[in-house]
User: Fold these one by one.
Assistant:
Number 1:
Amino acid sequence: MTDSKTRGVLGDKDFHELCRKRNLVTITLTIVSLLVYFGFIFLIAFGHDLMAHKISESVTLGIPVGIGVIVVSWLLTGIYVYWANREYDTLVERVKDKVNNS
Amino acid sequence: MTETTLGQTNLLAVFFFLLFVAATLVITYWAARRTRTTSEFYAADRSISGFQNGLALSGDYMSAASFLGIAGLVALRGYDGLIYSVGFLVGWPIVLFLIAEPLRNLGKYTFSDVVAFRLKQRPIKAAAATGSIITVLLYLIAQMVGAGTLVQLMFGMPYEVAVVAVGSLMIAYVLFGGMLATTWVQIIKAVLLLGAATLLVILTLARFGFSYGALFGSASALYGDGFLEPGGLVSNPVDAISLGLALVFGTAGLPHILMRFYTVPNAKEARKSVFYATGFIGYFYILTFTIGFGAAVLVGQEIILSIDQGGNMAAPLLAEALGGSIFLGFLAAVAFATILAVVAGLTLAGASALSHDLYVGVYRNNVSAEKEEVRVAKTSTLVLGILAIVLGIVFKNQNVAFMVGLAFAVAASANFPSLLLSIIWRGFTTAGAVVSSLTGLFLATALIILSPTVWVDILNNPEPIFPLGNPALVSMTAAFAVGIIISLLTRERQAEARFDEEKLRTYVGIGAE
């Protein structure tokens, strides 16, 4: 690809939009997944009584919370893939078309 | 249960294992005819689908150590085992959000391709390959020693024989079948492991009327309420955060995991493969948690401890209690297959760092004929495989548990910071990247030697010099800080100019291999 083409795309509105959206989504999701995990560690370190609280006859709150961290982490990857497959890829195709036609 | 056949030669285990070996060798033979070019050897000609790669990633990541070790930890310590499982999963979303797609779009075969994209090839590749090889070797030693011990415990086979058998098979897969054979070994192993663990959980829950409440109830009746609560594992929060950082960001710096993203045709498939992998691995850890509780109740801690102090035989003993020697044999064979799939992936990643990064990137300054590179890659495989066997035997009876923690710490400190900064920051320079990797590598290694894990537990000193069990909090932070400071001090205009091209490729994939 020639430099002029690169420069053309880099100034393009759609390309800016695409970068901005991807950064927003990935940074938000990264922060959320770190908060979920380190929140869990924090609860174990400082919320022992809460985690040991029985939510039924023989299940402590800590068990669904721990399993929940695993499930939520997976759901976050699902949210990202859903977003990327639908919205991000459409923007990528649009930018690619522009590059090919310029 | 009063007695076990564990440790005796189980003919069924041998039969299942030979069946697995025969099937994988047939695949290797088939793959060998499709493994001639570098793209075929390192990346299975980018022919693996997202779903297949998701299975292979989980097969690459779920080690026998984590299966048997975490089930054992849960059986002995109850809830605390879950904290470990969670830690080993949470790196995967980070791999997806920050690394997988840019890596696929920017690189060719190794993660150092990405770091070297607009920086100076030789110094970058030398530094990044060092980080890769150290990570791979640490992980490989831990796996080989684990393999020897486990096979000895399960089959009654001598340690050295087990290590040589594992080493020879992994060399055969990688040497002849390259990434294609390695991928299919990992896929088969993932299916077998997930299937065996699922069956074990179903049989366990059947004993409790398919009620988790009844299972947990029996466990707390036997071992007290504390078994269902966080215990002493996270007594020091700073320690827990440091280990957490190593696990979260180390996953995004493991060369054998990163390499797998080059086996799919494009960034979209790379993206999908992480979603599948995270699902499989998460499901697996939830199963392992249940298996640990099942073993604690149905086998009992006393018997588990009498076979192995580390509790590693909890899952096999549970299989025997529920399905007799047939199920025990099957599970033992699956554990063996699990080890093989992980060490094959590691060997391939190590060989590619030696051949693609060091030989071609550094020694030949990135000019190499296709045939020559494949030959060097195969020689590297052989060298690394033999080295792994030798190290496996040298480290017999040594406490190598810290090596996995160190491998994650090195990955998080030496590999991850320079990889991430090279993708996101225009001002990142060659000097910044090299000093960052070396700082991370040196600090992670030095601090773990001075930590309670090595200084006290292995070298038998009374007090640790460095207080944290895992050094990532310090070593990773330092690697980022040094990478940023050195880059600010050494502007590299050529690299800055090429950032636009890199950015277009990162986000859109134009020009990707």
Number 2:
Amino acid sequence: MTEFSPHVVLPFLLWDTLVGLDLVSVPQAMISRPVVTGAVAGALAGDLEAGLRIGVLFELFALDVLPVGAVRYPDYGPATVAAVALGAGTPWELGLGISAAFGLVLAVLGGWSLQVVRRWNARAIQRRAAALAAGESNAIRWLQYGAIFRDMVRGFTLTLAGLVLASTISDSIRLDRETAVAFTLVAIGSALAAAVSSASRSSGRGTRLKWLIAGLGVGIVLAVMR
Amino acid sequence: MNLRLFAVQGTWNYERMLGVGMGYAAEPLLEDLKAVDPVRHGEAVVRSAEFFNCNPNLAGLALGATARAEYEAVPGAQIVRLRTALCSPLGSMGDQFFWAGLVPALIGLTLIAVVLGARWWAILGFLVAYNAVRIWTGYWSLRTGMSSGMRVGAAIGSSWLPRAIEWIGPAAGFALGASVPVVAAWYLGIFGWAGAVGAAGVAVAGFALTRWFGPGLTSVRFALMAMVLLLLFRRIGL
């Protein structure tokens, strides 16, 4: 578990707020992908290995998300950061499962918070409907800034809640070694199921499926050689 | 390059979707119209912020095309129809290229590279590669939209995009396929055969159940349910 001193918490909050913004609002540079977020959070917590293990795990879950149109999906960015805060400093095979469980709940909460922000954005637009109908550029600008600010607050709040919960969980929940390992195995199995499910669904029955199978073959060879 | 396109989803909502973000990105493009025809400028601003939805990385095509149409004094109703007509193709092509192609392809390669020890280089490579493609696409889409105006549909059809969609899908399939066994071995190597079989059992059950139940049972819900079941089993001493 990461030590929650201000010099650790503040960079976490700053990084995670940026990650929260990146998912949808701005700039969508993919820093919110769990593998990126996890590595940076791991480095901030002084445990890169935990960051990568948790980041890659959440990345497998995130592959199952196709963020198109108005689809609702979990927000894995802030969830990954909070999960890394919980799992850092513990041997990964013991900490990964409980961190994943915590992170997944937070990811669902993050997804829900996105819906809330989107509804607030709609309300703000309704309030400025007359100005929009009159073609006032100022109204558009302030709607845009307001919405980005709301999303920033969302990311910040989610991270803060995540860090507080992580601190509480690490103080209150003690798993025996066997249960911790079983949790980790369930988390890994579920993440692999998500990745395979995503890969097979997006492949259909055409050329892409053939390439997927070829890739699986190459992957097995790489895994054996490693 | 219009940097405001990076924030085109800033005001995403269920009523106008990208609409207000498009209006924000259109503001500098429509600025010169204010001096030439202030009435037309006001109408153009209103149209620019109406309902719109597409993949954000291709929004420049619609933005550029409609901005040019405004300067060419194309009737407003025609511009509205163009915007509406562009929603589906730009959404579909952008999602196929970026979300179902480029992102999973790069993520698959990144995961393999992380596992093989490249770590920070892998992550940096992912960010540079994705953002290089994305920034170039943003530049290209705005330029193409501005230069083709109402003929933007033909310009998209004859561009690199449809061909790129054809090859990026298989590349994504290959990269994802290759990454799964590598990542699985990376995680399960230290648990021995018993652990690997246990995790594989969970994976098979997860795959089968999420396919069976469809959207009602997402991978996240399955994972959380499996963890709750595990806790219950441990509680009763299994």
